[in-house]
Amino acid sequence: MVIKVFLASSSGSTAIKKKQQDVLGFLEALKIEYAQLDIASNEENRMWMRENVPGDKKPSGGIPLPPQIFNEDNYCGDYETFFDAKEDNSVYEFLGLNPPPGFKKMPYAEEEEQEGDVEEEYEQGEEDLMSEEEEELRQLEEEEEAQVSEEGEEAED
């Protein structure tokens, strides 16, 4: 069974790049075999991913953003569900894999003790990602406004 991670090699969004790296880095750390399938340079990969993400898992815009994770043809989830599985120490279940011999799920009490620190770090990371996305959106809007005003000036001339 091969885990397929659909990603965009040429994404302009730093938030998407960070999410993709987080997924790949975690899979590598666990020594889980995976295949990277680029949706930016391969139309076939893009279409397959879009067609195979279940309808109830697609965002309101209808187009799922990378990274999207599959086990062969079975949809596992997106970054948010992956992150939740990682936090719950249930990545193997999320991926539909059997844990390696000797793998022990952390007892719930220990998990609760460590969760406070992780949540604080996660919340700060989320705030950083949101502010980066907002900054990128603001820059795009400014560029569009500048372009529109340039076109308006050219039309007046």
Question: How would you characterize the overall build of this protein?
Answer:
- Residues 100-157 are annotated as: Disordered.
- This is SH3 domain-binding glutamic acid-rich protein isoform X13.
- It holds the Pfam family SH3BGR.
- The structure is a single chain.
- The chain is α+β, with helices and mostly antiparallel strands.
- The chain has a domain at 3-95: Glutaredoxin (3-Layer(aba) Sandwich).
- The chain has helices at residues 14-29, 43-52, 79-87, 91-95, 108-156; strands at residues 3-7, 34-38, 68-71, 74-78.
- The protein has a four-stranded mixed β-sheet with strand order 2-1-3-4, sandwiched between helices.
- The protein starts with a strand and ends with a helix.
- The mean pLDDT is 82.
Supply the key terms.
single chain, Glut_rich_SH3-bd, 157 residues, SH3BGR, alpha+beta, Thioredoxin-like_sf, SH3 domain-binding glutamic acid-rich protein isoform X13, 5 helices
Concise structural overview:
This protein has 157 residues and is of the alpha+beta class. The protein has 5 helices and 4 strands, in the order E-H-E-H-E-E-H-H-H. It has helices spanning 14-29, 43-52, 79-87, 91-95, 108-156; strands at 3-7, 34-38, 68-71, 74-78.
Which topology of the domain at 3-95 does CATH recognise?
Answer: Glutaredoxin
Provide the spatial order of strands within the biggest beta sheet. Answer: 2-1-3-4
Assembly status: single chain
Tally of individual helices: 5
Shape: elongated
Main sheet record: 4 strands, mixed
Give the N-to-C terminal Cα separation.
63 Å
**What fraction strand?**
5-15%
Classify the secondary structure makeup into a structural class: alpha+beta
CATH architecture of the domain at 3-95: 3-Layer(aba) Sandwich
- The stretches of 5 or more residues where confidence is low (pLDDT under 50) are none
In N-to-C order, the SSE pattern is: EHEHEEHHH
Would you count the extended β strands for me? 4
Q: What is the averaged pLDDT score?
A: 82
Portion of residues within helices: 55-70%
- CATH evolutionary superfamily of the domain at 3-95: Glutaredoxin
The CATH class label of the domain at 3-95 is Alpha Beta
**Radius of gyration, Cα only, in angstroms?**
19 Å
